[in-house]
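Subject: two folds for Thursday's group meeting

Dear M.,

Sorry for the delay on this. The cluster queue was jammed most of the week, so I only got both jobs back this morning. I'm pasting them in the order they finished. Each block is the input sequence followed by the predicted structure tokens. Could you check whether the formatting survives your parser before we put anything on slides? The first protein is the one we discussed after the seminar.
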Amino acid sequence: MILCVLVFVLSSTTLSQQHLSHPINFCSMASTCIHDGRGVCASSPDGCSRRSFLDQCDMYEYNCDYGTQFMTKVSNPCTDGQPDFLC
């Protein structure tokens, strides 16, 4: 009986995945985010602008402060090169 309860509890936590709902509230995310110092490369929704941030929390704060919607593309600083799309 205890084994069945344990299996149920462990399986139910994987079924309750959290996801982002739209529109994303970057100010709320920035206020609860914990800085980890891992640089990220983010781009604007149209892919025409890229920007490096100190970490994902820094990106959320920037989006909150400036009303932008940068999203993470790769988890390292941006390199020089062409934007994602022809702008």
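Second protein, same layout:
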Amino acid sequence: MIEPITAKEMQQAYFWAAQCHPELARDRNPEEYAADFARRHGIRLPDFFGKTRTHDVAHRRQECMAELRQQGFTLSRIARLFKRDHTTVQHGIEAVKRRKGL
């Protein structure tokens, strides 16, 4: 029979699992991640989350979408963040792969 564990034991187990698998400890707030991504690349937030289609903003937005997808977020979750359709996100991720030659 399996004995229940305490919250402290659960936290310790999570800590050790996160050490072995860093992806488990990822930041689960895509809004903050995307805003930080835009700031690091010198893009104004209204442009990054808005309808701006200039080359530099659009490509950086697509790169952010690809990174969020790699972190395990769904296409629809990323699409809601950027106020776009999930197929637009899918296209952006594929465009990033093509630009990187993958």
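Two things I noticed about the second structure. The chain has a mean pLDDT of 88. Residues 27-100 form a domain with the Chromosomal Replication Initiator Protein Dnaa; Chain: A; fold (CATH 1.10.1750.10).

Cheers,
T.
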